[in-house]
Amino acid sequence: MHSPEVLLDDNDAVYDYYLRHQQNRWKALAAYAVLARRFRPRVSFAEGAKRQLTALVKSGRPVIFAINHLSTSDPYTVAATAWRSPLRAKIGRVRVLAKDELFLDPEQRRKVDMMGGIPVFRGKDHGIRAVNAAGQRMMDVCAQRLANGDHLAVFPEGTCNHVDPATVQAVGSGIGHIAFRAAKLGAPPALVALAMSYGPRPDPAIAPTAEEVVSAAFYFRAPVLELPQRPADIARLAKDELQHAVDGAVAHY
Fold first, then answer.
1. Where are the alpha helices (DSSP H) in 115-220?
2. Which CATH number characterizes residue 93's domain?
3. pLDDT tens, position by position, 213-233
């Protein structure tokens, strides 16, 4: 299938492509294993969460993973964490929302595609009105991928947190709309909050160095199996769950 350029003006073709795109699972497994050796994340779980997450993954039910966002290294450290957690069994079947600029350079795009990326055209980059139709299509594609048996990883803060790494920033309603639309398709997803801590940040505006993201603390909350019916309520729940996960990651650093 032809791979279109990831451009806002051609978003219909872009999302037609990513509705069907499937990365090579064996390459993904190998890449995640390499990242796990490189970043060596320390993974902890809320009480009972590891057992519950293992059962959830085995059940085949779609899951939305809400993850905090601290640096441009996050997709790689999260991938390393997936290898060292019950998510290893689903590597190759997890879609990851990623800003469109990551798809512009061919080599960078190859890596993002291999990790299951779905492009997001952000209002902060293109203007709220300009991205409205593309955003609606993106949420429909995510919901359909969940209905088709994939999982979805979302950084619901939308951008790196350069304010306070211990406090979750504003969460938009997009995660709620995706869950709501998946439920309408007969595939109500579960929600799992996963948070990272790279340690205390004297100045949160300065990104962590390559050395500082090694051996980060990651913390899984227990799955939420029953979500509210309204998108805004789902988004509020996601923020609350993610804050609890951040608290856990900070405590386990």
1. 123-126, 128-147, 174-184
2. 3.40.1130.10
3. 999 999 999 999 999 999 999
Answer positive or negative: Cα dihedral of 232, 238, 207, 200.
positive
How many Cα atoms occupy the beta-carbon half-sphere of 127 within 13 Å? 3
Q: Are 61 and 196 in contact (CB under 8 A)?
A: no
227 contacts: CB under 8 Å, gap ≥ 6: 179, 183, 188, 189, 190, 191, 234, 237
> Tokens 């997936």 appear where?
82
Claim: this prediction has a pTM higher than 0.85: yes
Q: How many CB atoms lie within 10 A of CB 79?
A: 26
Closest-CA residue to 208 (of 117, 115, 217): 217
Strands (E) across the chain are located at 42-45, 63-67, 94-99, 117-120, 151-154, 190-197, 217-220
Residue 103's domain comprises 8-251
Task: Name the domain count of the chain.
Answer: 1
